[in-house]
Automatic annotation (TrEMBL):
Region (Disordered): 228-258
Signal sequence extent: none
Gene3D superfamilies given in the database record: Tetratricopeptide repeat domain (1.25.40.10)
Highest taxon, organism lineage: Eukaryota
Protein name in the entry: Complex I intermediate-associated protein 84
TM regions (residue ranges): none
InterPro entries: PPR-containing_protein, TPR-like_helical_dom_sf
Biased composition (Acidic residues): 247-256
Length: 851
């Protein structure tokens, strides 16, 4: 056959004839030429396959009137993330890895985007960058370093690692720091230390100290500073050579002294202040004092970050004397604030926090002293704003605060530079409104807004955002919506777009509040959401989950998918977990229709690939509870095809699906899953799993096959459990000639002196009755009772009735029980029963067996 095909193909090629296949898309062209050749009397070949032209056909129900199916929006990810996710997936699957150049390019694109947007790196993104850079380091290690290309990649890799570490140090805050960031920086630090890369090591120390302090590991941060700080009080002659050596590059060098100068001398104070602030945040009093002693020994306590940390510590300890002392130290360290504009907001913020603490702790005298000291220095405008808030906190009226503003304006007469004049503005009004909101006083907030209008100070976006917040805080959703409309009108009236974005948080909260009420329609909610989307403003996790559930409740699966694809990949892992948990909760809700639950599951599977095994198992079980075995099996198959070790099925997962299928008596699905189990090399079959197989096959009326697993249990090294005996007896109850196997099993138990409790007796006599042997079952009960081996009670009688096969057999047991154990029978009847179409009764007792 192959040789014939070869001859045929070559003959057609030599004859300049086309090779035509039935499924060829170009056959129509050749077919259209064939009739023309025949009409012109052209030559024909015996090997030419006759082709019949196919005409286009339209069927009645195949008109293109419904349009093409809408395609889901592609996931919106930061550049390079998709490549790093693919790399991580290939590592899990032991598949062919991408090249080092591709991995470096992915990290480079990602870092460039983050630096341009000035965005922090989330914990999930840090994990991906960690995996990518670790892969690059290990791949380069496996190559000979004599090649120019390899050396260039190695240098580029180290440079990229330094840039990532620097970006982490600048953008990560206490709310965004995580253990993933710490592990990544520890990897870079360990890598640099073990390979002698001095520049990389120096670039990672400060970010690592910063991250450790943010994540509650200040002890480790302090140890790192002690290890790498310059020699204690070195002379200038010893400093310069050390610093010069640092600039030599990342070439491996001789082992360093434990007191090496890996940190620049001007960075030591910052490191110590970071460690001190970490201990203060952890509220570790003893370590705060010991760290402060170390700082004072090193003459580093004049840095402004040190007294700032101690100010926070004094507030925590509610120590007014310490607060006064450290406030004076802080103002001394920031005496050049007028010359350094970057410090103005920091000083004003610290001034505001001190005054608010004095109000909270009723330290009014101390607060007045702080205010007098600041006013004597001709304070800057931000400090004046804090003084106005202090006046409001000390019960000054709105009119009095207005007169204070007039005093501030008159003080400008002594300032020659008009640009340095202090004028009340919308920032001043917003600070007062914010204070009123914190005091739960909406009336005061409105009075301050009116005060601003009296001075021709119009509200800005932050003012409207504050209005929305305090109205939402009292449950006035309609009032918050009115404030939002005022915000929109204000924005539309602006000639130049404001750069302020703090209203984004208030709008997010408004969307959630609108969705939680029944008074506002869907269009109103979506109009507010579209405003955020048009501005390309970030959606909070709570907003995304709320809108996604709103779409799912309206059967708008595509809209929910687009929403999640747009926002979920920019969230940190905790935020993604929140969104995922809300959708899982919606899918698990029994009130949710099955179709919507399945849509929700598909969204979870497609977008939240990290969904853990436990939640997937819950979803699988919920579909069994909805009597949809096909959906439950599909969920299981998706788990089995996954590449993550924390997602693929375990023994518990197999047991869960067998128990769910047993409940539905779906023997076909049981056999499918059993075949998958045979192919799963990750699973070690245990007694627990075999018990579940017995239950599943017994429920599917294949008790004889189920008893084969009992034989496997007996032969296994682990052996049977008490549950194994129960499920085996239940299999005997539902299999032909099962009474014989039950008697063999019972004899085995007696020979091995197994303790026979009441439930075992009930299972045994039910197995006898299940095969129609009522006489043996009854005589066994009477004999055991006479020997004091069991007490006849409700559960035993109910088990006998449940095992009896058919109405007539049940009537025999009923007559015997009424005569012999009338009291127990009456108690059983009071529990109630259900009758099937054949007249067989099932009493309301729990005969379920577990693996």
């Amino acid at each position: 056959m192959p040789s014939h095909l070869t001859r045929s193909v070559f003959r057609r090629l030599l004859a300049d004839q086309p090779i035509i296949h039935r499924a060829c898309l170009r056959r129509r062209r050749y077919c259209s030429l064939a009739p023309a050749s025949a009409l012109l009397g052209g030559p024909t070949r015996q090997h030419v396959v006759a082709s019949i032209p196919h005409r286009q056909r339209r069927h009645f129900l195949n008109f293109n009137i419904f349009g093409s199916k809408r395609e889901a929006k592609e996931p919106d990810m930061d550049p390079g993330i998709d490549k790093m996710m693919e790399l991580a997936k290939r590592q899990r699957m032991d598949a062919r890895m991408p090249s080092v150049e591709d991995a470096l390019e992915a990290v480079r694109l990602f870092l460039k985007h983050k630096r341009r947007k000035d965005q922090p790196i989330t914990d999930s993104q840090a994990r991906l960058v960690h995996q990518s850079l670790q892969y690059c380091f290990e791949s380069i290690d496996a190559l000979p370093m004599d090649g120019e290309h390899v050396q260039r990649d190695a240098e580029e890799l180290r440079s990229l690692a330094r840039e990532v570490a620097k970006h982490l140090s600048v953008t990560t805050t206490r709310t965004t720091a995580s253990n993933e960031h710490v592990q990544f920086l520890w990897f870079l630090y360990s890598r640099a230390s073990s390979h002698g890369f001095r520049r990389l090591k120096r670039a990672t120390i400060l970010p690592l100290v910063h991250m450790l302090s943010l994540t509650g590991s200040s002890h480790a941060a302090r140890d790192l500073v002690l290890q790498h700080e310059p020699a204690f009080s070195p002379s200038d002659k010893t400093r310069q050579p050390a610093i010069a050596r640092e600039e030599e590059g990342d070439q491996p060098d001789l082992p360093e002294d434990d007191r090496s100068t890996m940190l620049r001398l001007n960075q030591v104070t910052t490191s110590w202040a970071t460690v001190l602030n970490g201990f203060v945040t952890e509220k570790n009093v003893a370590e705060v004092h010991s760290t402060m002693e170390m700082i004072q020994q090193r003459k580093c306590d004049n840095h402004r970050n040190v007294p700032r940390a101690m100010l926070l510590f004094a507030m925590q300890q509610k120590d007014p004397e310490a607060l006064k002392h450290w406030w004076m130290k802080y103002r001394s360290a920031t005496a050049d604030v007028n010359e350094r504009k970057v410090l103005q907001d920091a000083v004003a913020s610290q001034f505001y926090e001190v005054l608010m603490w004095c109000l909270k702790e009723n330290q009014l005298q101390l607060g007045h002293e702080v205010v007098r000291g600041e006013m004597a220095k001709n304070p800057l405008k931000p400090c004046w704003d804090a003084v106005f808030v202090w006046a409001a906190g000390t019960k000054k009226s709105v009119d009095e605060i207005g007169r204070m503003m007039t005093v501030m304006e008159k003080s400008n007469e002594d300032i020659a530079d008009r640009e340095a004049w202090r004028q009340p503005d919308v920032v001043t009004i917003n600070a007062l409104v914010d204070f009123a909101v914190s005091q739960n006083d909406p009336y005061m907030a409105e009075r301050f807004i009116a005060l601003g209008r009296e001075r021709n100070i119009e509200p800005n976006a932050r003012t409207f955002a504050l209005q929305m917040d305090y109205r939402l805080s009292v449950g006035d959703v309609d009032g918050a919506l009115v404030a939002y409309k005022g915000l929109v009108e204000h924005r539309n009236a602006q000639i130049e777009e404001e750069s302020f974005t703090e209203d984004v948080g208030a709008i997010n909260r408004l969307i959630v509040a609108l969705s939680g009420t029944q008074r506002h329609d869907f269009d109103t909610i979506m109009n507010v959401a579209m405003d955020l989307a048009d501005r390309r403003a970030p959606f909070e996790a709570n907003t995304v989950s709320t809108l996604a559930l709103l779409h799912l409740a309206r059967d708008e699966e595509d809209d929910a998918t687009d929403l999640l694809n747009t926002h979920s990949y920019h969230f940190a892992s905790t935020e993604r977990t929140h969104v995922r948990d809300e959708i899982v909760k919606f899918a698990l809700d029994p009130k949710t229709p099955t179709r919507r639950a399945w849509q929700s599951y598909n969204i979870i599977r497609d977008i939240f690939d990290e969904t853990p095994r436990d939640q997937r198992t819950e979803l699988m079980t919920s579909f069994f509870n909805r009597e949809r075995a096909d959906m439950g099996v599909r969920v299981f198959q998706h788990m089995r095809a996954h590449s993550r070790a924390d997602t693929i099925p375990t023994v518990d997962t197999y047991v869960a699906i067998f128990m769910g299928l047993a409940k539905l008596r779906d023997i076909d699905s049981v056999e499918i899953v059993h075949n998958l189990l045979k192919l799963d090399f990750n699973i070690t079959v245990t007694t627990y799993l075999r018990n579940a197989l017995i239950i599943a096959y017994t429920a599917g009326d294949k008790g004889r096959k189920a008893l084969g697993f009992w034989d496997d249990i007996v032969k296994s090294k682990e052996g049977p459990s008490y549950n194994s005996i129960h499920v085996a007896l239940r299999a005997c109850e539902n299999s032909p000639f099962g009474d014989l196997r039950a008697k063999e099993l019972w004899s085995l138990l007696r020979r091995r002196n197994v303790e026979l409790d009441q439930p075992l007796w009930a299972s045994y006599v039910a197995a006898l009755a299940g095969n129609g042997d009522n006489d043996t079952a009854i005589s066994t009960v009477e004999e055991a009772e006479a020997n004091g081996q069991l007490d006849v009670e409700v559960f035993l009688l109910g088990s006998l009735m449940g095992g009896a096969n058919g109405q007539m057999k049940q009537e025999e047991i009923e007559a015997w029980a009424k005569e012999k154990y009338s009291a127990q029978w009456e108690e059983l009847e009071r529990l109630g029963f259900e009758t099937d179409i054949a007249g067989t009764r099932t009493f309301n007792i729990d005969r379920r067996v577990s693996p």
